[in-house]
């Protein structure tokens, strides 16, 4: 296994083994984070709590990430990047095992909180890791490929785990996920080359302006995730309310996730050439899809058709914000990863809370419109902030 000093950043092809390992790890990370979404009604029924309370399992997880991502990244900046990544995968394994055997909602929530601590460090490390594996000219493509693991988490991980949970019980789904996490620790050990620690870095001239651009990108990231998870946290509730049987939720989530790969592909193909147009196109698709879901609800066919557009748009969102943030050069790659990670999870956690409030107040039919309104806010920021979201990667 090569040492960190034995290799230099190169092309995507040269970094293929490491990128595959990061993609697999990202797949497990997103599946762990999002699994309660598909099993929310079953968990709530078994634990005798309401859907809004069960939705807090997403909020707790995201809160841990939002609070701990930056301090954990800074405090571990001198540690081995590879060792840290493997440690987070071990922690994911323990978290999923705790959830699988939890005797009550309190222990279940504690298991999720522990997973949130792992997540706080995982994406902070992995975003910086991917950018260090390749030369700057390939940053967008590398991050899009690693983000494909996140898309696969939606496409395969969450839907298949949901179907498994429906067939054998939600505890079985978390138990199987724990086993796959343990296997991934071995995959990372074999395929991922070492890279230097993050350090604290010195930004030099123009640091203030670059930090402002990074702050704009991070804020927009939070707003977009807030809009997305106001709705997506309760997507299984929406689908059941259209008359879809419980056994159909997993396959439908599989389909929504699958079209998300189109967005991931689009981002990979265009981010290194037309970054601004890419983010505007994807956010426009998410907005149109959510509005369509709201207008069609509770008609199943219309909701599913609009969800295709929604899912395709969101499939590329993570990579566009990660790439935009890295290209601001407003901090080290690891600190930028921590900020992107933290702000995304501020949006995820707050979105679950906002969605619960809408569910308890105006009602289920208003969720898609609330989410779309927040995505529009993100679109407006992108339109105004041209220096944070430039038309070319060299800008």
How are the secondary structure elements laid out?
Elements: H1 16-47, H2 51-54, H3 56-75, H4 81-101, H5 105-133, H6 139-168, H7 170-191, H8 207-232, H9 235-241, H10 246-270, H11 275-296, H12 300-314, H13 317-328, H14 333-360, H15 367-384
Roughly how many Å apart are the termini?
37 Å
- What form results from the Cα inertia axes? globular
The CATH architecture is: Up-down Bundle
Q: Fraction of residues in helices?
A: over 70%
Calculate the mean pLDDT score and round it. 87
Question: Helical region count?
Answer: 15
Q: What can you see in these coordinates?
A:
The chain has helices spanning 16-47, 51-54, 56-75, 81-101, 105-133, 139-168, 170-191, 207-232, 235-241, 246-270, 275-296, 300-314, 317-328, 333-360, 367-384. It is built from 15 helices and no strands. The protein has 395 residues and is mainly alpha-helical. Helices cover 79% and strands 0% of the residues.
Task: Please outline what is shown here.
The chain contains 15 helices and no strands. With 395 residues, the chain is mostly helical.
């Amino acid at each position: 296994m090569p040492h960190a000093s034995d290799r230099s950043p190169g092309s995507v092809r040269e970094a293929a083994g490491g990128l595959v390992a990061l993609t697999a790890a990202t797949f497990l990370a997103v599946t762990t984070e999002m699994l309660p979404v598909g099993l929310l009604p079953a968990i709530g029924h078994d634990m005798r709590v309401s859907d809004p309370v069960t939705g807090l399992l997403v909020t707790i997880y995201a809160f841990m990430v939002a609070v701990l991502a930056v301090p954990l990244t800074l405090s571990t900046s001198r540690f081995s990047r590879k060792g840290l990544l493997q440690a987070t995968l071990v922690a994911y394994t323990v978290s999923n095992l705790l959830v699988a055997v939890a005797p009550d909602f309190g222990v279940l929530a504690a298991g999720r909180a522990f997973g949130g601590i792992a997540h706080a460090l995982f994406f902070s490390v992995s975003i910086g890791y991917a950018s260090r594996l390749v030369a700057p000219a390939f940053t967008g493509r590398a991050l899009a490929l690693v983000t494909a693991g996140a898309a696969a988490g939606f496409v395969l991980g969450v839907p298949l785990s949901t179907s498994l949970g429906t067939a054998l019980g939600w505890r079985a789904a978390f138990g199987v996920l724990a086993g796959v996490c343990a296997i991934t620790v071995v995959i990372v050990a074999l395929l991922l080359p070492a890279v230097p620690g993050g350090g604290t870095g010195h930004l030099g001239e123009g640091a203030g302006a670059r930090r402002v651009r990074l702050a704009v990108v991070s804020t927009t990231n939070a707003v977009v995730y807030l809009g997305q998870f106001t709705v997506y946290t309760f997507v299984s509730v929406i689908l059941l309310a259209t008359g879809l049987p419980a056994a159909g939720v997993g396959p439908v989530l599989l389909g929504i996730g699958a079209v998300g790969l189109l967005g991931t592909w689009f981002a990979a193909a265009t981010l290194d050439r037309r970054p601004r147009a890419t983010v505007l196109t994807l956010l426009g698709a998410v907005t149109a899809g959510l509005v369509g879901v709201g207008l069609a609800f509770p008609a199943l066919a219309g909701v599913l058709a609009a969800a295709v557009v929604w899912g395709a748009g969101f499939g590329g969102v993570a990579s566009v914000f990660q790439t935009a943030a890295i290209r601001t050069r407003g901090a080290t790659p690891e600190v930028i990863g921590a900020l992107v990670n933290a702000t995304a999870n501020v949006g995820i956690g707050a979105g679950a809370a906002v969605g619960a409030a809408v569910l308890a107040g105006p009602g289920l039919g208003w969720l898609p419109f609330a989410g779309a309104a927040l995505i529009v806010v993100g679109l407006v920021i992108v339109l105004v902030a041209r220096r944070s979201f430039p038309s070319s990667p060299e800008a």
